[in-house]
Amino acid sequence: MATMTHVVPISDSLRNRILALRLTPRRRLTDVVGSGSSNGVDAAAIQAGANREATRQRLGIGEDAFVVGFVGRLVADKGIPTLITALQDPRLADVTCLIVGNEEEGGLADEMRATHVNVIWAGYVEEPWGELSAMDVLTLPTKREGFPNVVLEAASAGVPTVTTRATGAVDAVIDGVTGIQFDFGDAVALADALVRLRDDPELRASMGQAARRRAETEFAPTRVWRGVDRILRS
What is this structure's pTM? Predict the structure, then answer.
């Protein structure tokens, strides 16, 4: 960062982390553009590709199944061990887990198969709008992020997220409004949040609607682009 004239953080928590670690002089560090993210989200495009019923039929998921989803790399930094432990909670025995992403080295995929019966593997999907719409809840039990775009993508499809209070992730969800936050590594808290949302469809729907409104109003790509353009011209 020493040769840069401007450093544009994509979330408030990331900005605070940069300052705490003294990674760049404060004078080079700009404010976060809008509410954050690197590029915003095209909510309309995601909604156009979000066909919950057809996607569930294609994946063999029942209409009444409660689906917990994960989109990303199956690595420890994304909190997969925490998700594996949470899904072993007896209260979640009937939950379907939809995984979208490539399997990585390290055996976490095999461990998930061995510990939870109802796992569906969609593999890597370039634009997983249908898969997101098939979920009831997205979970991102991550250790660290810049700003997780997948949360905005899920929000655009009307899906709330359960994520951690980690850097970046904490900015993507308004706790109790657009989803639920918990501390990284706390599998009990993750399980509790999933059970709460499964057992309260009205809360789940209200969080999904709030998440969609936030994605549409605060994270439109043009809003982010205009903010970056102002910085570049300053």
Answer: 0.94
State how far the Cα of 190 lies from the Cα of 202, in Å rounded to an integer. Answer: 19
The packing angle between helices 187-199 and 201-218, to 10°, is 100
Task: Provide the pLDDT for residue 113.
Answer: 83
Length of the chain equals 234
Domains of the chain: 43-218 (3.40.50.2000)
- What pLDDT does 2 receive? 61
How far is the C-alpha of 63 from the C-alpha of 115, rounded, in Å? 24
Give first-to-last CA distance, the chain, whole Å: 19
The stretches in the chain having pLDDT less than 70 are: 1-2, 105-106
CB 98 within 8 A of CB 122: yes
Quick one: pLDDT at residue 143? 98
* Per-residue pLDDT at 228: 86
- Measured CA to CA, the distance from residue 181 to residue 18 in angstroms comes to 22
Q: In this structure, what token pair is assigned to residue 183? A: 């501390």
Amino acid identity of residue 206, one-letter, is: S
Contact between 114 and 84 under an 8 Å Cβ cutoff? The reply is: no
Beta bridge partners of 67: 96
- The predicted structure's pLDDT at residue 211: 99
**Residue 144 neighbours by CB under 8 Å, 6+ apart:** 77, 166, 167, 168, 169
